[in-house]
Design brief:
Blueprint (H helix, E strand, L loop, with lengths): L18 H8 L2 H4 L1 H12 L4 E2 H8 L3 H15 L5 E6 L2 E6 L4 H8 L9 H13 L4 H8 L4 H9 L3 E6 L7 E5 L1 H7 L12 H8 L2
Antiparallel strand pairs: 1-3, 2-3, 4-5
Helix pairs in contact: 3-5, 4-5, 7-9
């Protein structure tokens, strides 16, 4: 356009020196893709895990594209020390990394790092590797009454009812939670360490 100075705009005003910087701030997709950035924003503001189907609906993207974007996000966070992306049971959530727990505890005055008893750890191992299963099944594997331990683990939000067994009385089936993954610094259940034959027999009754 005639009379337009270098760096100027058609309305006669000069382009502000930070216009290009502002453009970069509002378009992170230029660096690493639009969908991962949008998903990151949604997970950041969500107070609870978000179903993959809900992300797909909100973003008007197919679930496969959402899954690929989540994988990209997970790779992005993996070398970082502050945040992790957790995915399990068809849901996703941004959490703080376990290495930061003591500092978060100090900042917020919380007790995030109190240790579990040996009985609680053994029961938690049973649930983690054999889920979902009922209290009676847990007790059958451990050989002791687990009422108190199950209450403790439920109160700590490390396990939760995930359904009911279709038999008389319809007892609760228990599984691990997002807090369980967070507590042990796992990205998902597939990150559980494999059990040796001896551990499988002693800890989970296989």
């Amino acid at each position: 356009m005639e009379g337009l100075e270098p760096g100027g705009r058609p309305d006669g005003h000069q382009r502000l020196p930070f216009d290009s910087e502002r453009q970069a701030v509002h378009h992170p997709e230029a660096a690493w893709g639009e969908l991962p950035g949008l998903i990151e924003a949604l997970l950041f503001v969500s107070p609870s895990p978000v179903p993959i189907a809900r992300l797909s609906e909100v973003l008007e993207a197919d679930e496969q594209a959402v899954e690929e974007a989540l994988a990209e996000l997970a790779n992005y966070y993996r070398p970082r020390s502050g945040l992790r992306l957790l995915r399990t049971q068809g849901r996703a959530q941004l959490i703080t990394a376990p290495d930061a727990a003591s500092y978060i505890e100090r900042l917020l005055g919380l007790d995030l790092t109190s240790r579990l008893s040996q009985a609680a750890m053994e029961t938690l191992a049973v649930v983690a590797y054999r889920q979902p299963l009922t209290r009676a099944q847990i007790e059958g594997i451990r050989g002791v009454n687990c009422d108190g331990v199950i209450r403790t683990l439920t109160a700590r939000e490390l396990i939760e009812p995930v359904g009911r067994l279709e038999q008389p009385g319809r007892p609760f089936l228990y599984g691990t939670t997002y807090q369980f993954l967070h507590y042990f610094g796992l990205d998902g259940l597939d990150a559980l360490p494999p059990l040796s034959d001896g551990q499988a027999e002693d800890s989970v009754g296989k």
